[in-house]
Design brief:
Radius of gyration: 20 Å
Largest sheet: 7 strands, antiparallel
Oligomer: single chain
Number of helices: 6
Strand order of the largest sheet: 2-1-5-6-7-4-3
Number of strands: 7
Mean pLDDT: 95
Structural class: alpha+beta
Amino acid sequence: MRKSEFEIKNKEIIEEILNSSEYATLALACDNKPYSVPVNFVHDGNVVYFHGAKKGKKKEFIVSNSYAAFSIALPYSLIQSYFSSNDELACPATQFFRSVCASGQIFIVEDYDEKVRALSLLMKKLQPEGKYKPLNQEVYTKMINATEVFRFNIENITGKLKVGQNLSQDRYEMVLDYLEKRAYNIDKETILSMKENR
């Protein structure tokens, strides 16, 4: 199976991965030096918002070079080699997963109302049950002004899903059998995804 056959073509699945991920790995570069850092984020249409300190390495890199990439990887089951083969070779061992990679440009949000909106979206994601005062209240003004908010404008986005689509029917059924017997919670999720994407 070619790698392109693992590509997620359904935008709703990409949206689901973005919305269910707690953090992404942000990749930056400055003067031919790479830097990557995990960030809490919220996805809103063709934009990703994240926040940080007014000073620090992350902001320095962004100011120097606003072009960046980010990635998310959510694991499905770890598949031992003997789950799909009886030849006692290491090669079939693999990790099932779903992932998203995006590239684009980062801008520092200067508009106070946009900062409030971005941080409100992030809070809604992190604490969907509410139980906090809305961020447009005056009590937050000092904290919001002291926080840097970044807007990542997505220019390109792709997704990958690997759940045994490339396996022969015999190997596919063998993996299913092992996962059903092992029965970890993640195995149950993996089985569901395998059947949905066969």
